[in-house]
């Protein structure tokens, strides 16, 4: 049995590296990836009617592979946004390093490519880091937290102290897995007994049989599961049954759902506890108070002209307290959050603010600035060369006959 000499193996590795490099810097690869991007956008636009904008982003753009459901089986159909965007970023970076030298002639192209690469990086970080919440404030109300649009959490509240509550929040994913949990701050164990990602509640009929809940208001309520919805104007409302197990005894099985108006209260070992399933909260060390919400209309019509919220920003030390005005295209940025005017309710007495946390929010602005500077520099360089050639031609002596 013969073996190839080491030089042959090294040569093959070198050829393989050269092939990979040639493929990465290929302009054909750029065109193929741009074509994939167009297909992704087109398919997502069509599917948005069925899934809504949030589900479409997760299915098509914030994934490595787009899957299709064929009965009970999910099969890969197409490269996702992360795959296409990652390959496009590698393609641009390879072209950036290999094709251009650091000269004034190529300065504009270098800046434009750097800006485009930064834009792709910014989109990736936004997909990974951005979180969206909403803040509802009635006139005169003060809050120091925002609530998630879609995510929920199970909370156990120790309300025994008069001055403060100790809250233990458990992600909804634990209920989905239906696995027991023992939190170090809780004197009992939590055991899921059933979870529905979308359900409606109504009063139990007298002949409905034994209830799944053995404590709290759930003993009088019937839970009816519903299909999960992805439509933009519809919302999934989860419901679950959770049993609390103390040392050697059961404290009861409770029904929890955001549709229940108030947390359910019980006592254990001389302390008062509350249990609830609510939208996930984002607490901050500052609070906002709604002073006035204004809904301006064009004179003589009901056509909206402007929405604005005048609020009081309250900081812990009081040094940053001030009044702020939020209206369309004029958000409040404070504490790493951005507050946008989003909507209103309750006959113009309630404002709804969209709260966004995105640590990478500056990257798209920097990327667009780099691309604009690069294109202007490239255009200016070409223009200067064209003007110079015209001047040289005009100054040259005429040719003799």
Walk me through what this model shows:
This protein is of the alpha+beta class and 401 residues long. The protein has three domains: 152 residues, no CATH class; 85 residues, no CATH class; 134 residues, no CATH class. The chain contains six helices and 17 strands. The strands form four sheets. Strands 3, 4, 5, 11, 12, 13, 14, 15, 16 and 17 form a ten-stranded antiparallel β-sheet that branches. Strand 1 and strand 2 form a beta hairpin. The radius of gyration is 30 Å and the shape is extended. The N and C termini lie far apart (81 Å).
Give the structural class.
alpha+beta
Rg to the nearest angstrom? 30 Å
Strand proportion, as a percent range, falls in: 35-45%
Portion in helices: 25-40%
In brief, what are we looking at here?
The protein is α+β, with helices and mostly antiparallel strands. The chain is built from 6 helices and 17 strands. It has helices at residues 6-24, 27-61, 81-98, 107-129, 172-177, 363-395, and strands at residues 65-70, 73-79, 131-138, 142-158, 166-171, 189-196, 199-203, 221-225, 239-246, 249-256, 264-268, 271-297, 304-314, 322-327, 332-334, 337-345, 350-357.
């Amino acid at each position: 049995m013969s073996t190839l000499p080491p030089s042959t193996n090294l040569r093959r590795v070198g050829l393989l590296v050269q092939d990979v490099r040639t493929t990465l810097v290929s302009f054909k690869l750029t065109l193929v990836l741009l074509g994939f991007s167009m297909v992704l956008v087109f398919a997502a636009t069509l599917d948005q009617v069925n899934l809504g904008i949030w589900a479409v982003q997760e299915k098509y753009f914030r994934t490595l592979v787009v899957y299709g459901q064929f009965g009970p089986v999910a099969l890969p159909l197409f490269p996702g946004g992360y795959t296409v965007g990652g390959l496009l970023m590698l393609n641009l970076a390879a072209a950036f390093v290999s094709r251009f030298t650091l000269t004034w002639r190529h300065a504009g192209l270098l800046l434009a490519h750097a800006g485009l690469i930064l834009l792709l990086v910014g989109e990736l970080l936004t997909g990974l880091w951005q979180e969206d919440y909403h803040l509802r404030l009635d006139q005169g109300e003060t809050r120091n937290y925002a609530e998630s649009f879609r995510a929920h959490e199970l909370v156990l509240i120790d309300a025994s102290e008069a001055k403060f509550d100790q809250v233990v929040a458990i992600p909804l994913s634990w209920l989905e897995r239906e696995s027991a949990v023992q939190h170090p701050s809780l004197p009992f164990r939590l055991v899921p007994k059933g979870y529905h990602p979308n359900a409606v509640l109504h009063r139990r009929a007298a002949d409905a049989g034994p209830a799944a809940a053995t404590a709290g208001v759930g003993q009088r309520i019937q839970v009816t599961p519903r299909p999960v919805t992805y439509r933009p104007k519809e919302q999934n409302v989860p419901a679950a049954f959770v049993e609390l197990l103390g040392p050697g005894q059961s404290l009861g099985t409770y029904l929890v759902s955001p549709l229940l108006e108030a947390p359910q209260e019980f006592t254990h070992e001389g302390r008062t506890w509350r249990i609830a399933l609510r939208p996930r909260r984002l607490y901050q060390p500052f609070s906002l108070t709604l002073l006035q919400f204004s809904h301006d209309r064009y004179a003589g019509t009901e056509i909206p002209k402007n929405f604005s919220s005048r609020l009081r920003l309250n900081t812990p030390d009081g040094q940053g307290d001030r009044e702020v005005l939020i209206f369309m295209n004029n958000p409040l940025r404070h504490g790493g959050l951005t507050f946008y005017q989003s909507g209103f309710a309750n006959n113009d007495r309630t404002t709804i603010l969209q709260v966004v946390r995105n640590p990478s929010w500056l990257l798209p602005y920097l990327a667009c600035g780099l691309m604009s500077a690069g294109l202007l520099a490239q255009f200016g360089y070409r223009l200067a060369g064209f003007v110079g050639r015209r001047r040289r031609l005009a100054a040259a002596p005429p040719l003799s006959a």
